Amino acid sequence: MDLKRLSILGVGLLGGSIGLAARSKLSDCHIVGYGHRRETLTRAQEIGAIHEAADNLGDAVKDADLIVLCTPVLLFGEVLKGIAGSLKPEAIVTDVGSTKRSVVELAGRLLPAHASFVGSHPMAGSEKRGVEFARTDLFENALCILTPTDSSDAQAVTAVEEFWRLLGMRTCRMTPADHDAALADVSHLPHAVAAALVNMQRPEAMRLSGKGFLDATRIAGGDGGLWRDIFLDNADNVRASIARLRRALDEFEGLIRARDGEKLRAWLDAAAARREELVRERLRDEA
Amino acid sequence: MDLKRLSILGVGLLGGSIGLAARSKLSDCHIVGYGHRRETLTRAQEIGAIHEAADNLGDAVKDADLIVLCTPVLLFGEVLKGIAGSLKPEAIVTDVGSTKRSVVELAGRLLPAHASFVGSHPMAGSEKRGVEFARTDLFENALCILTPTDSSDAQAVTAVEEFWRLLGMRTCRMTPADHDAALADVSHLPHAVAAALVNMQRPEAMRLSGKGFLDATRIAGGDGGLWRDIFLDNADNVRASIARLRRALDEFEGLIRARDGEKLRAWLDAAAARREELVRERLRDEA
Questions:
Q1: Residue B5: what pLDDT?
Q2: Does B284 touch chain A (CB under 8 A)?
Q3: Whose CB has fewer CB within 10 Å in chain B, the N or C terminal residue?
Q4: Predicted pLDDT at A1
Q5: Using CB atoms, which residue from A208, A216, A272 is nearest to B182?
Q6: In terms of Cα–Cα distance, which of B17, B219, B22 is closest to B138?
Q7: B263/A contact by beta carbon, under 8 A
Q8: Between chains, do A193 and B195 touch, taking CB under 8 Å as contact?
Q9: Residue A6, H or E segment
Q10: Alpha-carbon distance A258 to B228, whole Å?
Q11: In this complex, do B219 and A196 lie within 8 Å of one another by their Cβ atoms?
């Protein structure tokens, strides 16, 4: 893809970091940012994440080769409606949302035939939010999941893949449905559980918590609005994930009720070993 | 307490760190270590955690002013039987176990009237185990919970409190029952949940996990044998904690099923705020 004009819709932590990273890799690409708060756009310009701030969605995407949706997930419908009439022929649209079925469905319905949509989930971020935390290297070595469908344009998929790789990411492809089910298990459920672990505590117990509790609940410190949207958008999968966690807890409870030390040890060791293997995998990925 | 002879039974991460810290603070205290593996004792001597290695429990505690049980929790009964006949008058015995009801009950039954037992839970450690990870500063600024009972000797309680403070710890007192119930909520349950979160994963989902999953499950990497003992010893409380987590998850599930974005946001924000307050508290404690 000859990327001469990049449009970033929503210039927070992710949008800002995309701007910084794209600017460092593409010297002749003009980057336009759009957001509903003027001061965020000004700040994004000051730190060099965007060249230009647009006042409305139409101007923001006009002539853009690639448009990246970085607003909250539940605003995607509105944003897609707002840009549909201003996309140039062969414009490619992608996003950074944590759920993929809904945006893929919306894009298929709302965007014109002369533009292409490819869903993306760059798995980078932090519990911090806002363009002031944007970093050029936020995406370095992290994984980006692309969710093309049977009706996706093959060249557009390749172009979006190349874009994330340019920003330093590893990429893989999944269907939107597989993505949402897998992420419910490894990301959305752990977040809900972390929040539940905090909310269930009595103050007199919580003041005794150590480093383990703080680690286990760190993700509960994330942005409530962002996570509300994820949970509402992926509710069916999240409920299925909760059901599977309940079954794992049933198994554990059965072992301590039966005082089966041997099987309990095996259950605990299996978790430790699987996690250890995952840590090794991550170290290999990042090497 | 005039501590001239300290006996450490079980010289792993905690026992070794107690030796190192006590040696750095008490120049004229002789430290004897006991353990079932000769090479561990040799290593403990090499790193300076103990002055002397004892071959049997009787020799290990002979003439000791303070004895600290650092073996796995489920071995405490055996160890207490092994030392009961060799304790000098007014010897003080304590422990580092993560559960307190059982050891307090055992000590009351097995130790002679001329010795005193005071339960301790120094909340320091790491997912690492073994004397090779022992550190002089492991206890610095961490909390030690003492669990005296109505029949505890007041002077012995004060002496044990002073010992942990000498090692740099903050201290507080609770009943053994309150301790075990609170720790089930803030420590044992989070560990079980972390292991369940790993064990429930399908491989194709787990390979997509990010930093949040690794943080949320870090405690599942702990020693399986140690944790098996904790879960078996505190099974009733752990089951009650699981029941309360299930109710918190019920509440969450109810909110996403009802698509109640406002209450869901409030539930998530409450967790984030309570955790943030806890982090601030910890920073104050450690300042």
A1: 98
A2: no
A3: C
A4: 72
A5: A208
A6: B17
A7: no
A8: no
A9: strand A5-9
A10: 13
A11: no
The pLDDT of residue B227: 94
Q: Do A206 and B282 touch (CB under 8 A)?
A: no
Amino acid identity, position A235: A
Joined together, the tokens standing for residue B261 give: 């974005």
- Which residue of B190, B253, B265 is in closest CB contact with A242? B253
Nearest to B212 among A202, A219, A225 (CB): A219
The rounded distance, in Å, linking the Cα atoms of A244 and B202 is 11
What's residue B156's pLDDT?
Answer: 98
pLDDT digits (tens, 9 = 90+) for A263-283: 999 999 999 999 999 999 888
Report yes or no: A157 and A175 within 8 Å, Cβ to Cβ: no
Q: How far apart (Å, rounded) are the C-alpha atoms in residues A164 and A69?
A: 14
Of A142, A221, A245, the CB nearest to B197: A245
Name the A residues in 106-145 with CB < 8 Å from any B CB.
Answer: 123-124, 142-143, 145
Q: Which of B201, B239, B278 sits opposite A209 (nearest CB)?
A: B278
Q: Which residues contact A166 (CB under 8 A, 6 or more apart)?
A: A22, A25, A26
Q: Show the DSSP H helices in chain A as ranges.
A: 13-25, 38-46, 57-61, 76-84, 101-110, 154-166, 176-183, 189-199, 203-206, 211-216, 224-233, 235-257, 261-286
Cβ proximity of A142 and A124 under 8 Å: yes
- 8 Å CB contact between A62 and A138: no
Residue B227: its chain A contacts at CB < 8 A? 268
Q: Which residues of A touch B194 (CB under 8 A)?
A: 216, 271
Contact B271 A190 (CB under 8 A): no
The candidate with the shortest Cα–Cα distance to B106, out of B78, B87, B86, is: B78
Q: Which of A200, A219, A271 sits opposite B198 (nearest CB)?
A: A271
* Global ipTM: 0.91
Cβ-based contacts under 8 A for chains A and B: 266
Q: Which residues contact A155 (CB under 8 A, 6 or more apart)?
A: A116
Across the interface, whether the CB atoms of B209 and A189 are under 8 A apart is answered no
Domains of chain A: 5-174 (3.40.50.720), 178-286 (1.10.3660.10)
For B185, the token pair is 């909520």
Q: What is the mean pLDDT, run by run of 10 residues, along chain B of 287 residues?
A: 94 96 96 95 96 96 98 94 97 97 98 98 83 93 95 97 97 98 97 98 93 93 91 98 98 98 98 95 80
pLDDT recorded at residue A236: 98
A65 secondary structure, DSSP code: S
Calpha distance A254→B117 (Å, rounded): 34
What's the token pair of residue B284? 């104050």
pLDDT in tens, A2-58: 899 999 999 999 999 999 999 999 999 999 999 989 999 999 999 999 999 998 999
Confidence of residue A138 (pLDDT cuts 50, 70, 90): very high
| Cβ-Cβ contacts under 8 Å, B72 against chain A | none
Residues of chain B with Cβ-Cβ distance to A248 below 8 Å are 196-197, 199-200
